[in-house]
């Protein structure tokens, strides 16, 4: 289970978003569904939904594969999945860095918008590699640098604190995978622009998703009223002619195969 302060805070943040998550998860639904065409057709497979959250995709996967296990670092997310997703039979509390599964035991790992929460890609990909069977598949989405670029830029005009998590570049992901013996058989990068009524709407959605924990932020808690107002003013540079506030999410989708050595 979470074994660093940062992991504990991430788990806590997702714990507290459990009940608001599903109504806020429009990006997650979109990216998760777009991974479906990459899934194998065989049914007799053992599949992990890594970072399963409220279990929306764990349930979908459970209709396609014989043995699907939802794994998450947040106990409240797991409890929610248990009580709301009738077709989900296996749930395990676990951290992506220390998966509670044996070597070479899983055919497919599906993971939708989770690994941006894992700073150490090398450690993470090693762990996923360990658990997958030879030729096993890792099908995932994550967020790249430029995600929330409008929010980051608006805050940069106000102070030097960190208000948005560090997202990796696509080259970091590709380089790490190839160094560790993965074969990246398909991937693409897409900017998804979501629309908001105002900056408060965006902030509420991020909180509703549990995506509001920022590691290494110096000033904990809410920004002061003045700073918040300066930031929302700066965000107006991005407002579209119809008054919509856009937010960019740069999504990396990948299908990586554990090459047979
Ligand atoms: C944005 S949600 C995505 C949930 C789900 N995959 C979906 O598509 O709706 C991220 C999930 O990853 C989980 N998570 C974050 N870091 C994790 C880690 N190190 N190990 C396991 N789960 C983690 C969170 O608790 C949360 O439920």
Automatic annotation (TrEMBL):
<feature type="domain" description="Methyltransferase type 11">
    <location>
        <begin position="48"/>
        <end position="140"/>
    </location>
</feature>
<dbReference type="GO" id="GO:0009102">
    <property type="term" value="P:biotin biosynthetic process"/>
</dbReference>
<dbReference type="GO" id="GO:0102130">
    <property type="term" value="F:malonyl-CoA methyltransferase activity"/>
</dbReference>
<keyword id="KW-0808">Transferase</keyword>
<comment type="similarity">
    <text>Belongs to the methyltransferase superfamily.</text>
</comment>
<dbReference type="GO" id="GO:0008757">
    <property type="term" value="F:S-adenosylmethionine-dependent methyltransferase activity"/>
</dbReference>
<dbReference type="InterPro" id="IPR029063">
    <property type="entry name" value="SAM-dependent_MTases_sf"/>
</dbReference>
<dbReference type="InterPro" id="IPR050602">
    <property type="entry name" value="Malonyl-ACP_OMT"/>
</dbReference>
<keyword id="KW-0949">S-adenosyl-L-methionine</keyword>
<dbReference type="InterPro" id="IPR013216">
    <property type="entry name" value="Methyltransf_11"/>
</dbReference>
<keyword id="KW-0489">Methyltransferase</keyword>
<protein>
    <recommendedName>
        <fullName>Malonyl-[acyl-carrier protein] O-methyltransferase</fullName>
        <ecNumber>2.1.1.197</ecNumber>
    </recommendedName>
</protein>
<keyword id="KW-0093">Biotin biosynthesis</keyword>
<dbReference type="GO" id="GO:0010340">
    <property type="term" value="F:carboxyl-O-methyltransferase activity"/>
</dbReference>
<dbReference type="GO" id="GO:0032259">
    <property type="term" value="P:methylation"/>
</dbReference>
<dbReference type="Pfam" id="PF08241">
    <property type="entry name" value="Methyltransf_11"/>
</dbReference>
<comment type="pathway">
    <text>Cofactor biosynthesis; biotin biosynthesis.</text>
</comment>
<dbReference type="InterPro" id="IPR011814">
    <property type="entry name" value="BioC"/>
</dbReference>
<comment type="function">
    <text>Converts the free carboxyl group of a malonyl-thioester to its methyl ester by transfer of a methyl group from S-adenosyl-L-methionine (SAM). It allows to synthesize pimeloyl-ACP via the fatty acid synthetic pathway.</text>
</comment>
């Amino acid at each position: 289970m979470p074994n660093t302060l940062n992991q504990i805070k991430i788990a806590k943040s997702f714990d507290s978003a459990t009940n608001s998550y599903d109504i806020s998860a429009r990006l997650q639904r979109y990216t998760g569904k777009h991974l479906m065409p990459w899934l194998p057709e065989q049914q007799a497979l053992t599949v992990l939904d890594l970072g399963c959250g409220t279990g929306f995709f764990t349930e979908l996967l459970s209709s396609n594969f014989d043995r699907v296990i939802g794994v998450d670092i947040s106990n409240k997310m797991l409890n929610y999945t248990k009580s709301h997703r009738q077709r989900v039979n296996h749930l395990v509390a676990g951290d992506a860095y220390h998966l509670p599964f044996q070597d070479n035991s899983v055919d497919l790992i599906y993971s939708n918008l989770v690994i941006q929460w894992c700073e150490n890609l090398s450690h993470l990909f090693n762990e996923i590699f360990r658990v997958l069977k030879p030729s096993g598949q890792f099908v995932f989405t994550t967020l790249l640098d430029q995600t929330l670029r409008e929010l980051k830029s608006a805050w940069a005009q106000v102070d030097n604190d960190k208000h948005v998590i560090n997202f990796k570049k696509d080259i970091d992901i590709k380089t790490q995978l190839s160094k560790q013996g993965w074969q990246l058989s398909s991937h693409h990068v897409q900017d998804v622009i979501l629309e908001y009524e105002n900056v408060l709407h965006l902030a509420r959605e991020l909180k509703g998703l549990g995506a509001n924990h920022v590691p290494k932020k110096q000033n904990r808690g809410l920004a002061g009223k003045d700073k918040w107002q300066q930031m929302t003013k700066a965000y107006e540079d991005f407002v579209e002619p119809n008054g919509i506030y856009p937010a960019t999410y740069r999504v990396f989708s990948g299908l990586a195969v554990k090459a047979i050595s």
